[in-house]
Write a structure and sequence with these properties.
Layout: E1 10-11, E2 18-19, H1 44-51, H2 57-64, H3 71-83, E3 101-102, E4 108-112, H4 120-123, H5 131-142, E5 163-167, H6 180-197, E6 203-207, H7 209-222, E7 238-241, E8 276-281, H8 286-291, H9 296-310
Parallel strand pairs: 4-5, 4-6, 6-8
Antiparallel strand pairs: 1-2, 3-5, 7-8
This protein binds iron/sulfur cluster.
Residues 47, 64, 67-70, 73-74, 97, 169-171, 182, 185-186, 189 line the site of iron/sulfur cluster.
């Protein structure tokens, strides 16, 4: 990183608009759903309260993107945004939590660990602007789940097809290591996102052990029966989960924006009626890709399997 810099405005590489770092809400950053009126979570209790509201994905994304519940991570993400890495010193840094991104009715859900300090924390979009993203989006494109083979900046025209990507922890952590309490605090956002997208999701791809554990914990809280002890993570590991049983309530009115696609069945209270497949995949971190622990072929095998299971009729 360079010496501590100022928060003076710099030009976004796609839009040409100027932003300070971190980026204030509602100032025109591509994909920013927050505004000056968006509520800000300042504690774990706030996260649970705001994540538990009845709202849609846009409202959830907005609230996530302003969260300040983990003081250590807030300090780190904003410090990185102000100081920057030398190679990006002319760019504004988002410096805020990274919401989920992609389809609002996904069939495939990809769960990562956390944003990269100079990737998502800079670009404001998950797996965007770093080497891990190059690997992931290359595989998604080859499997027919992304429009473009790379993801450089928010607003670059990239589009996910029937797919959504989320991080288990939404802020960039020092050394890519969130603490257990930070993981648990951020789990409120993950749970809320799962509640909104699970009615259509058929496959979840977990990138790495951290995402695997966080996802299975979240699915258990959502109502899926997750085997105990928790299934072991590995590259290509697969767990098939039966759909949750309906709660002992009746008369719930399904949300209009969670309407099923043609041919899909959705339980009246909004939980999926179909089984869910959870796949394990080594994280496309440089630590794994540089050492050959994860090859492009290995990544293609898991992402391709997710595409076949999640979008069996899609043209690839
Ligand atoms: Fe909020 Fe999650 Fe970031 Fe913690 S890690 S500040 S809970 S968005």
């Amino acid at each position: 990183m360079t010496e501590p810099g100022s928060s003076s405005s710099l030009t976004h590489p796609v839009t040409g608009l100027a932003f300070p770092s971190p980026v204030p809400p509602g100032t025109g950053w591509p994909g920013d759903r927050a505004s000056a009126d968006t509520p800000v979570a300042a504690s774990a209790v706030d996260v649970r309260r705001l994540a538990g509201r009845d709202g849609d994905l846009a409202e959830l994304d907005a609230a996530v993107s302003l969260c300040r519940a983990c003081p250590r991570l807030v300090d780190w993400r904003e410090k990185v945004a102000r100081q920057k890495r030398l190679s990006f010193v002319e760019e504004p840094y988002w410096g805020r939590p990274i919401p989920g991104w992609g389809s609002t009715h996904p069939r495939v859900l990809v769960v990562g660990l956390a944003p990269a300090a100079h990737g998502g924390n800079r670009t404001g979009r998950i797996f965007t602007g770093d080497r891990s993203g190059d690997w992931l989006f290359g595989a998604l494109k080859r499997a027919g789940l992304a429009q473009l083979p790379g993801s450089e900046h928010a607003g670059d025209g990239q589009r996910l097809l029937g797919t959504r990507i989320v991080a288990a922890v939404r802020c960039a952590p020092p050394d890519n290591r969130p603490s257990p309490s930070e993981r648990d605090t951020c789990a409120g956002w993950l749970d809320a996102e799962l509640r909104l997208v699970l009615p259509t999701v058929r496959v979840v791809v977990c990138l790495g052990l951290f995402a695997w554990d966080a996802t299975l914990r979240a699915l258990a809280r959502t109502g899926f029966v997750v085997p105990r002890p928790r299934p072991t993570f590995g590259h290509g590991a697969r767990v098939d989960l039966a759909p949750p049983r309906p709660p002992p309530t009746s008369g719930h009115v399904p949300r209009a924006d969670l309407a099923p696609r043609a041919g899909e069945t959705v339980r009246p209270y909004g939980l999926p009626a179909d089984p869910l497949v959870v796949l394990g995949c080594y994280h496309p971190s440089q630590q794994n890709t540089f050492t050959g622990r994860l090859t492009a072929r290995m990544l293609d095998q898991v992402v391709g399997e997710a595409a076949r299971l999640g979008l069996p009729g899609a043209t690839r």
